[in-house]
Design a protein that fits this description.
Bound molecules: NADP nicotinamide-adenine-dinucleotide phosphate, zinc ion
Number of helices: 11
Distance between the termini: 30 Å
Number of domains: 2
Length: 357
């Protein structure tokens, strides 16, 4: 066992606070990683505040992790000490069910083990995430950082591990490509990755935002069209025009406004997972144009590696603001006020720093 430091939420109401805990001793296939950077996902906030009603406290969030290997279990073969690596939302799964065998560990039929707030199947301890100094992970759930990414890119690589894969996976699953017209609803951490990825896949992309001040940014990210979702007239121009919509909004809203934008046979895939249920939608809209409403959860390990290579090849990285871990509670508040462009990333060196970063 080794002692590590991090930040944890002790309950749903208090701010995150400094927290010391133990990481397991290295198992034969484990790698030990010194965490350099960790992205701040809106799911961290949902979890910390128990908005999904299943948080086990204390919880150490963080599933967008970039770090360096500092130790290896005796039976590892995939990594070397000193190598830069990444860890995303998953740290284990049964590895034997149909989903696992297809590389879809996030849909493991027995149990996906998430990077934090899951129970480790071997020792029944709680998994703890990347808002911490070190993590120990099975090498099969550790990702390689493509060499095309340089040292200076590392903070921005971190958000690819959730925001990147969560948007890449459905875009691939629904075959987004050269002839697709794609809508991205919500320009936050996930949304701004979806725009870049869909553009790189060759799609024509329309962003639907509730924030006037994001219109220029959406264009800079490559969007061909940007629509203020509160403007009825602008929205009407897109009725029956989109093949696929990825909805990344972190709060409930009327889905009808967006379902009407799909063409016949179009699909809207929900990735946003707000605290409460959505208001009911108009089923007739689906039936009369054979439209689908769908959902998607992160992505498996194989696809996450593929996404990292895709981003390296297409020079895709998120827009980030680096923060010290001491600023995490402020960052959560700013995320709620929609005041983040477009992902906070914690510089983990701040954990031991006497001076604020
Ligand atoms: P984020 O950075 O906070 O972005 C959410 C965006 O939603 C905001 O930028 C805003 O975009 C829009 N929004 C927020 N509140 C709104 C409101 N009241 N009305 C209308 N629009 C609103 O969050 P994120 O990290 O991208 O995560 C987004 C959601 O995806 C969260 O619910 C998160 O838990 C979930 N998630 C799911 C998965 C999965 O596997 N399915 C993985 C990761 C995250 P505009 O300003 O452009 O309107
Ligand atoms: Zn996430
Ligand atoms: Zn499985």
């Amino acid at each position: 066992m080794s002692k590590v430091q991090g930040y944890a939420a002790l309950n749903a109401k208090s701010p995150l606070t400094f927290f010391e805990f133990e990481r397991r001793a290295l198992r034969p296939h484990d790698v030990k990683i010194d965490i350099l950077y960790c992205g701040v996902c809106h799911s961290d906030l949902h979890k910390v505040r128990n908005e999904w009603k299943n948080t086990m406290y204390p919880v150490v969030p963080g599933h967008e992790i970039v770090g360096r290997i500092v130790d290896l279990g005796p039976q590892t073969s995939l990594f070397k000490i000193g190598e830069l690596v990444a860890v995303g939302c998953l740290v284990d799964a049964c590895r034997l069910c149909t989903s696992c065998l297809e590389g879809l560990e996030q849909y493991c039929e027995k149990q996906s083990i998430f990077t934090y707030d899951s129970i480790d199947p071997v020792d029944r301890s709680a998994t703890r995430g990347g808002y911490s100094s070190q993590i120990i992970v099975d090498e099969k759930f550790t990702l390689k950082i493509p060499t095309a990414f340089k040292e200076k890119d590392l903070p921005a690589v971190a958000p690819l591990l959730c925001a990147g894969i969560t948007t890449y996976s459905p875009l691939r699953h629904w075959h987004v490509g050269k002839n697709s017209r794609v809508g991205v609803v919500g320009l936050g951490g996930l949304g701004h990755m979806a725009v870049q990825l869909a553009c790189a896949m060759g799609a024509e992309v329309a962003v639907f935002t509730s924030s006037k001040n994001k219109v220029q940014d959406a264009k800079k990210l490559g969007a061909h069209h940007v629509v203020l979702s509160s403007e009825k007239k602008e929205m009407e121009l897109f009725i029956d025009s989109l093949d696929f919509i990825i909805n990344t909004v972190s709060a409930t809203h009327s889905l009808d406004h967006f379902i009407q934008l799909l063409k016949r046979n179009g699909t809207m895939c929900m990735v946003g997972l707000p605290e409460s249920c959505y208001p009911s939608f108009d089923t007739a809209q689906l039936i009369f144009r054979r439209k689908s409403l769908a959902g998607s959860l992160i992505g498996g390990i194989r696809e996450t590696q593929e996404m990292l290579e895709f981003c390296a090849q297409h020079h895709i990285l998120p827009e980030i603001e680096i923060i010290a871990i001491q600023k995490i509670n402020e960052a959560f508040e700013r995320m709620l006020k929609n005041d983040v462009k477009y992902r906070f990333v914690i510089d983990m060196a701040s954990l031991h720093s006497k001076k604020p970063i």
